[in-house]
Amino acid sequence: MVVLTKTTLEQITLPIAPKPSTYFSGIPVINLAEPGSETLLVRACEELGFFKVTNHGIPMELMARLEAEAVKFFSLAQVEKERAGPANPFGYGNKTIGRNGDVGWLEYLILDVTSKPMSHSSLAFLEEPSASSLRSALNEYVSAMRKLVREVLELMAEGLRIQPRNILSKLVMDEESDTVLRLNHYPPCPHLQDLDCSLTGFGEHTDPQIISILRSNNTSGLQISLRDGTWVTVPPDQDSFFINVGDSLQVLTNGRFRSVKHRVLASGLKSRVSMIYFGGPPSGERLAPLPLLMGEGEQSLYREFTWCEYKSFAYGTRLADNRLGRFQR
Length: 329
Hints:
This is gibberellin 2beta-dioxygenase. Helix content is 25%, strand content 27%.
């Protein structure tokens, strides 16, 4: 940990990391329009827990539109943005991540997008006329994400050769499914320009949900951890989506799929904006390895628990903690 001076980052204590490595060339790229994509999806989830999808059918104009609205929001005066906060759990947050001492060089907006159409009762500013364009972009984007997450999870089921086809997707498509959209903004940090280091924007962690779908602008910073613990930098691609296996999917597959550890490093000069759709199950859904994926005599690696139980525990930990450890047999 390094304490930066008031002339730099407002005396915020933030982790310093090495500058991003060269881009990692081993990210699986899966063309959803090609036959055999279901097999490639399963392989990517087994080997890395992370992959990129192309030919996803979502117009670039829609992605760019929400990005532009996010940039507009994050460009508001601080007092205006804070009208949407604090993030408890939904709303605007700045530097503080969660309630357990984690911090990062970012600001963010977290939205509950479970209902259809989205209800913003907890974020009154979104109901104001001045927020109509942001509200419209959010609703259209979330609708597109629902279709994409269903397609990807149903292809996974095909690749795993389990029935019914919606055995995984139904968990995130239920009316009570716990789905969240997070808009992250990592402002440029010019004070790092001449330093041989980067600032941690979002510390290392895994996502507790079933699946996460991320789209960002053309700024690097996202890193994932390989199985040997090596951190590698993901090449940015604003036209595609990056998908993470979450902790819950690791449990459902009895560890066959692995939840990927990832982090974001802030840039010295370029702003990074990302939109992440988190697909989680209903609050009372009981999570345990699917019997259809258990071989003869195979033992469950996890005890059964509800999503509400796991979510409550996960959000009570630090980012880098091994959350699933408590639920292993």
